[in-house]
Amino acid sequence: MSLANQTAVTRRLEITPTSPPLPGETDAPAAATGTAGLTTAEGDPTADGADIAAPEDADAAPARATAADSLSDTSAGRTLPPTAVTAVLHAFGARPAELPPRTVVFIGSTAPLTALPAVHEGIPVRTAPSPAHALHLAHHELQAKSADLALVAGFQEPLGRTVTVQTLRRAAEAVAADDSVLGVLDFDGCAGPADEPILRPSRHSRRLTDPAAPRLLLWSGGNAAEEQRVRRELAPLLDGLFPEAFPALPATMPCGQAPGPVRAGAVTTAERAPAAVAAARTVHAPRPRPVALLFPGQGSQHTAMAAGLYGREPVFTAAVDAVLELLGPEGAAVRADWLADTPAVAIDDVRRAQPLLFAVDYGLGCMVLSWGIRPAALLGHSAGELVAAVLAGVVPLSDAVAMMRERVVAAVRIPAGGMLAVAAGAEALRPYLRADVVVAAVNATSQTMLAGSTAPLAETAAALRADGHTVVTVPATSPFHSPAMAPASEAVERAYTGLPFRVPDLPLYSGYTGGLLGPDDAVSPRFWARQITDPVLFQPALDQLLAADDMLLLEAGPRQTLTVFARRHRAVRLGASAAVPLLPARPVTPEADRHAVLTAACRLWQEGHQLKGEALARLWTCAAEEDTPAPATRAGSPVGVAG
Q1: Which of 89, 90, 70, 88 lies closest to 80, judged by CA?
Q2: How confident is the model at residue 502 (pLDDT cuts 50, 70, 90)?
Q3: Residue 161 maps to a domain
Q4: 214 contacts 595 by C-beta, under 8 angstroms
Q5: Mean pLDDT, the chain, as a whole number?
Q6: Is the pTM of this model over 0.90?
Q7: Confidence of residue 13 (pLDDT cuts 50, 70, 90)
Q8: Helical (H) or strand (E) element with 405
Q9: Bridging pattern class, strands 252-253 and 215-221
Q10: Based on the domain organization, do 193 and 249 belong to the same domain?
Q11: 387 and 511 share one domain
Q12: Range of 229's domain?
């Protein structure tokens, strides 16, 4: 089932009214208790604004909470008070400031709703004449991209009954975030907004059982002797196993216990598994180095980059689809050119390079997060910094895609130009600079990029080569990070004004400040707009990152460019830190894409990180699902189907 234009239900709770007030006493309990009238299932009163823990198992039967004053009977002329909105928010343990910027509360009720505010603590509140109407309205706003998260509550008369509260998201974004997906809403059978949509299971992938496909075998022990014992137990199991059963083996062993510090792993097929397990290297990893994700930018793109994961790894696939869907009608053409042998628009064209790099970088980042990795820091190069900003919580995905699209629109209006990679330091290149050719990026000690308009840049390249410098033309059709892009910078700054920027939730190192991104820059439209013209200070930013701690640098993008830069850093050369790519260094086969990702995951395991075996297994057990009908339930009925 395609996730395009689908709305997913990701959480469901049931709120049960308790002690409905008498006529005229709607707000009395709140005044008496000083709360929003919401208590947890265990009966503990929760103060207004308190941090309520969400249920641990959102995929199981709907959790139940109670509300005293917030869900009162509206018959006999009584109306829902403003605390009904508070109850909806508290049911999910969320403070308004912690919710995504474009969160909207939808309340559908056949009873009067005249007492509800249009905005509650900065969150818009929509009302509808029935619960079904509210679901239709939420779906419409999500698909129109005017809302990113919908909290929907349906109130039936009499209001003393259990009220179902649901969270809705665009389906692809929910899967990309590895959110619980209880199902997707099917509106096809609805004659109008009064008809309740059907909730269908989200089956966006199907199971594979190919024994010839490589997979991960990961095992550990509390000490060297335990690891050897697990390895010996694996040997006869693999020797006698039917090949078709090989993909179904657990990703991590032994099962049912926490991984030990002595680790080993192998990327192997069923046929080679016994030999691979016997030859696997043992690593003692008592303290894993923190992971920092690196996101490459313009120049790293190539045709079909990471295409071997598309349609095979569900989180990556959903993340790419989410980005392309947010691009609107152009998204389908971008996808087609990405996967085509001969694209209609060249991949190096800014109209393809920027959207696809964003989508691939974001998809890889989401995939790594779904494995259970929580990065200690993020660092993006050029356009990759915008992806880092999304994962750090600086800007919502929908706004980040809009920002990237504005960059592209502004860039195509600038006269053609390009970029050069030169094997020399920035100081050594100063004699070759001119008004229209400048230092665009400082990547490593002897790795500098120049940018400028086409003719002056060609003259500079010729002069550099004549003097014996190694010069490589970067795949770019725009003079990014040069004064030539100033009109584009001014245009996007106007477009960025008013966007809901926030301070990062994770340490975000910026290639434009050369260090940790501060709160003032994070929320400044001008800072993000000037990234088109300002030079990228990747090396200084990496210096600051590796000075903070010994790190395992994981490049979430194509071509291994940042891995190469990082491996030249002194901290990496000395072994204090390490750099690992997720994808191959050059365009290869889809199988090579998957093998590279498996190898990176194995390295994370050997480093000592705890990984989610079920998430890893998707790399060798999943493929894209064809559109097929699935059993369904009404959206208001209990559901226990996970995506």
Answers
A1: 70
A2: very high
A3: yes
A4: yes
A5: 85
A6: no
A7: confident
A8: helix 397-411
A9: parallel
A10: no
A11: yes
A12: 208-286+588-623
- Say what the pLDDT of residue 238 is: 93
> What would the DSSP string read from start to end of 11-23?
EEEEEEE-SPPPT
ω before 112 within 30° of 0 (cis)?
no
Q: Which two tokens stand for residue 264?
A: 């080993």
Q: What is the CATH number of the domain that holds 459?
A: 3.30.70.250
Number of domains observed in the structure of the chain: 4
Residues 6+ apart with CB under 8 A from 166: 9, 11, 12, 13, 151, 152, 153, 635
Provide the 10 A C-beta neighbour count for residue 19. 12
Decide: 318 and 397 in contact? Cβ < 8 Å. Answer: no
Measured CA to CA in angstroms, residue 410 lies from 389, 402, 449, 485, 496 at distances of 21, 12, 22, 9, 13
Nearest to 582 by CA among 349, 368, 356, 420: 368
Q: Where are the beta strands (DSSP E) in 415-507?
A: 417-422, 437-444, 447-453, 471-474
Name which of 11-25, 346-360, 368-382 the model is least confident about.
Answer: 11-25
- Other CB atoms within a 10 A radius of the CB of residue 77 amount to 8
Q: Are 448 and 544 in contact (CB under 8 A)?
A: no
Domain identity same for 103 and 172:
yes
Separation between Cα atoms, residue 547 and residue 319, nearest integer Å: 32
One domain for residues 199 and 213: no
* The amino acid at 555: E
Find tokens 């395992």 and name the residue: 552
Instruction: Answer whether 384's CB lies under 8 Å from 361's CB.
Output: yes
